[in-house]
Amino acid sequence: MATSLSIKNLRGLPLLLLVPATVLPLSQATAHGTIAGVRYRVAVTVQGVVTDERGTPLPGATIVLKGNTSVGVSSDADGKFSLSVPTGNETLVISSIGYVSQELNLAGRTTLNIRLVADNKALDEVVVVGYGTQKRSDVTGAIGSVKAAELVERPVVNVAQGLQGKVAGVDVSLNSGQPGSAPVIRVRGYSSINAGNTPLYVVDGVFWEQGITTLNPNDIESLEVLKDASATAIYGARGSSGVIIITTKRGRRGSQVSYDNYVSVSKIARKLDVLNARDFLALEDLGYQNVQKFDPSGWAAGKYAARDPRLKRQALANPNDPKRLFDASLNPLYDVDWQDATTQTGVAQSHNLAFSGGSDQTTFGLFLNYTNAQGIIRETYQKRYSGRLTVDNQVKDWLKVGATLNYSSIEDKIGNNFVGGNNIPRMMIEMIPIVPIQYPNGVYGKRQDYPDMEGGDNPVAITREDINLTRNQVFAANIYANITFSPNLSFRSVFGANISSQLNPTASSNLIQLRGGTQNLAGFTAYDGRSLQWQNYLTYNKVFAQDHALNVVAGIDAQRFQALQDYTETRGLSDNSYSYYNLGAGATPQVPTSNFDANQFFSIFGRANYTYKDRYILTGTIRSDGSSRFGTDYQRGVFPSGAVAWRMSQEPFLAGNSTISDMKLRFGYGQTGNSNFANYQSQARLGTNSYIINGVRVGGTTLNTLGNPELRWERASQYDLGYNLGLWQNRVTFEADLYTRTTSDLLLARPVPRTSGYGSIFSNVGSVRNQGPELSLNTVNIQGKDFTWSTNFNISFLKNRVLALGPAGDDIYPGPNFLNETNVLRIGQPVGSLFGVVREGTWGTAEADQALRYNRLPGDLKFKDQNNDGQINDLDRVIIGKAIPTGFGTLSNTFRYKGFDLLFDVQFTYGNDVMNLTHHSALDRTDQANSYSRAYTDAWTPTNQNTMIAQVRPSYVYYDSRIDSYKVEDGSFIRGRNAVLGYNFSNGVIERLKLTRLRVYVSAQNFFLITKYKGYDPETSTYGNAFAQGIQFFDYPKARVFTAGLNVTL
Amino acid sequence: MLSRIRSRAQATALCTGLLLAATGCKDFLKEDNRSTLTQSNYFANATQAQSAVDGLYNRLRIMNTDVGYGESIWVGVELMALHATTLGQSFNNNQIINQSIDPANPYFSNMWNNAYNGIGAANLVIARVPDVSMDETQKKALLGQAYFIRAFLYYHLVRLYGDVPLITNPVDGTSPDLYPTRAPQADVYNLIIADLQAAEQAGLPAVDRSGRISQSAAKALLSSVYLTSAGYPLQIKANYQKAADKAAELIDANQYPLFTNYASLHNTADKNQGELILQAQFAFGIATNAISPLVIPYFVGISKYNDEFGAVVPTPGFYATHEQGDLRAQEQQFYFSKYPSIRDPSKTVNFGTQALYKYFHVESALGNGVSDENWTLLRMPEVMLIYAEAINEVSGPNTKAYTQINAIRSRAKLPALSGLSKDAFRTAVWKERYHELAYENKAYFDIQRTRQTYDVAGNRFVNVVGFKGEVGPAFQEKYLLWGIPSAEINNNKQLTQNPGW
Predict the structure, then answer these.
(1) Helix axis angle, B106-128 to B73-80, nearest 10°
(2) How far is CA A212 from the centre of its chain?
(3) Is the whole-model pTM more than 0.90?
(4) Which residue of A485, A588, A751 is in closest CB contact with B284?
(5) Are B152 and B102 in contact (CB under 8 A)?
(6) Which residues of B touch A707 (CB under 8 A)?
(7) A445-460: pLDDT as tens digits
């Protein structure tokens, strides 16, 4: 039996193969080794230490007797082992995951120091696939793996950060600098339009519905991304947007304690250039002068006389006025940099404490985490407490049971919980510099303290006075039982329960202006979600006639999800200090709402993997899914896949080749489905509304959805051609995949004429295709005794096209809508193409006559009249950008010198555009809020006519603001994502401290950014719509983070 | 041992099989929908019928639909009449005034979408309530309200967009009505009139002060429909008499006495009282209505509202057309030009222009900052002027017609009219409509049906097309109708666009 495999099992990977305990080489040998019931005459006891290349002890390494694997032991927490062998002249095989196995002839030695060399890409590495594991070498699909060490090699608050850039074809966008903000993860592009594009997360075999941010990255042992259909088809309809399988850490034999922590500081990485007090007032003066040009008759009639800035300033220059803003000569008293005032140096700390231990029969693990990360906007943070307990018990030789209990409590205080409006990121740009944070008497400065300004609050006041908390408690438990019927056949049953309980208290004080009067409010959103899942499957594993290996998995999986949500709010609190703690203190309770949501899945699946002579591999998968979401007659869908692989390196003509150590060609085809959309869309549902009769609220019933009883599965067909190459004992590995995924029967909220009374109907129409090569190259450039240098490079290209839409192929505008539609789905174009008019510049004085045709003057914005009909309107809109990248990837270099390691990680993305909607309020219109500096410095003037920015004028005379090409900026970038310098203390030091491992490190994240984009960061979006990547209206700024950390193992 | 394992294997296989059978059945996949009801299981009893009708009422608020920042449907309709300017930052409002708005603008689509959504809900009531087993009198009254709301919405659509799709049955995913063509306006008017007659005869109370639709509301709207259909584009002259008759029924019943104080038009205490026949209802804490913040000049600081939009500000030219001594033009009657500062009430804020005191809601402006005044749809002076105008077209001014217009003038402290020619009387009624019903969303509809506009400088009525008023360029003919929303044309190739859009 393969001993290494059984050890892997004990490390907590879900068991595909359960090796009967009768042959398990467990425990330290005793004088009379009765291991596994086999008695040996003990002659010699061998002792030793297993370490890695740097001398760090390796716990859990396996030491077995060559030719008789039933004699064996694994190293303890200090890497030490002791083994009794018959003669003392045997050969030992020493192995550990991630290291090259070593054979060692004892030749009479009884004390050993064994150094294992890291395996750069171990082919025997086990990869977690759906409902089981496979050896990397047997994999026929496109699967990317990330191990624990890679995930946490830099300090990450959530798993998505750790995953970013690790796997080709996986695009992770961290769109907000807010700690704990949800990332957008896309595996091989956008397969769907209205059904979700978010990958399926499977944690320890159980679907994880709470989102990837609720996991503690330190708890993860390994993470695999299933990309192509032959890999994902085992998840059928759940897998069409890719599957991310997460295996968490479990207990190990022996006793071990480890502690990891880090402390980091983060600062705003880039500030935006806005007007200071002097320029703000200068712009106002200039704008006022220009009014007579833009409204000569109104000017002549004195319509604007009262708006003369000098009058306004004089009125605010009275020395006795507590809200005085100007001195006697009308110079401003204040000049606040609101970005500085609103941001802070955010301090974060994280502590992870792990205990692991156990005997041959029982192992346990306890993993505790505390993380407190302050945001770079004042008063924002994420706090997380989590605890996880795992127990695994070999009850009988044929029965193993285990359980995982996971509890996390996550509290976020966020600063950008809605887009636009009075949120902090917007106000820190728009708040005017001439007003103070607080006046000498303590009253908050308000934008409207200066007349003619639009409503909008002091962002520092919002951070202090508004409370917006998200408290999420996740309780996740799963229990499993493995029954081994025979060495070839086993059965596994897993029951999982995920309970997510969320409470979002909000409170707004009336100390800030927009909530003035009696409108201070408080409320709660409460959410209670439950997901229950039960899966049962059989695994059959047999090698026939030496050359034929067969692995079959078959089973069923049933899932139910339900959620209850409610919202309560009261307004007019009698006192701010009640906050959200006493809603009864509110004068006007609002109408409460609640909502229930549920769905069920029932699936039957099977997979067969056949290997001939380790060369030819064939995999077939089929899954039949039933979902409650579809029309009664269309609930079931069957999703097949098949793949072949040829390991050329195992052919006689390549065997023993000193250059080529691995070569594999893979081809797969499969279908997957998608039902990831809102519940109940097949039903013609009625909604509720209200009216007032006799001054009293009366509830009513009204239309809601246009039901479609014929709703059925969305289906994606995917081809994948893959190639793996390993050279010089895999010192160089190269992996390439070429795929085409075509989604048809797209689930689409197809717009219907509004004359129906409805906006859209969920239907199966349309088709979209994603294609791309993905390449990754890993090389060990230098491998010396003391110095190694290795490089990882991956790049993914994405070509996305809409092939068909709706019955007539009409354009669809998926939103967000801001001033107008911002993006379009159009046949032949990538999904979510940015859409609008083309800004050609500004009208020059020489073009006054042409400008007049559009009722415009020199100095006004000039748009391209595509149909030359003399007006600029919706008919002049064209595609003006592409939000999804053409290519993206990562280049990372790792250097090790003795105890030092240095990692340098650069991320790049190109070919994507960003629609910067902040131009609308901070550039197009001026004089009612603060603006970008270029609204003044680059504006049209008679002597600066070659510009894209209109002549300055107050927005109360007309101005143009459209969704146009000038708002679309090149979003390509190169980012210094991560640099880490670490030091592993040498054995001598560690032993003196009675430790097994001690590492310290410092790191810098986001340490440079090269881009033409003018906002904070081109990796951005402020909208939740399916195709809103790259569309932003005042995002939370990104941080530059410096960290110092410590890893200790006892 | 081995046999024990084997039997266990068999047992497990059996369990698995049973599980497959037990959980695989259809029941497990049945949708569990507890928050909403469906069309298939609704309309089972009188309570549900009542609730479905109550659900139609919020469409009476259609003119108060928020379109954008400082934009509400009624604002757009008022700016279309070109006697108001806007001081706010709304791009769409400025485009309306400059007559450069395009058919993708949110005004046109919001109006269209909301009206048809209400019509769809009304069609469902009209189709399903007749089969509900319930008290027949109540059923008739419920249907009458549904007919009224459907007519009310179609009446707005046909005036704003001209020929419009005429949907009278519930639509589902397979209905031919999903992709309708435009119906001739005459057909639309026929449906409106039939629906309003059904409402009139539905046994509704003659007067209702609770906010519900009354028989009088049906009569009043019917008189307006008749008057409009007698003008452009249908020009069914016979309908002048019908308009006069319906209006006369209300006048003779004398159940809607004129307020003695104009403040009652925008007071909380006088909601649904006196001369008010039908209002869209709002109430603090339940439904807010931004009329009052919309009419305050741009951020002058006289109220507790978060925003003072300055969306609709009367032109000085129009204000100047009020006759000498007109009470309505006095400070704090229909207009105001100054008000105490909210920050320092000892100081007065001078607007430098006239603003609409008619819509200034004192209670909320100085109180809790949440405006909740009702929006008036029908009030008695309009009915009185409909009578005067219609009967004048039939037979010239009669005594009863003079009584109506003079009652309104007398309240405004203006001298009574007498001895006018038919033409002069018509002009007098039109001016009175402009002054009494100023900024109540009547002027644009009057322009559409008369093709005349008020030349405030010449104090006369002139052909609207090509006339340059106080604001914006000369009136373009296409502005007699709204454009069909471009998204709608994109989704339904059966639709044609209105000329010029």
Answers:
(1) 120
(2) 7
(3) no
(4) A588
(5) no
(6) 38-39, 172-173
(7) 989 889 888 888 899 9
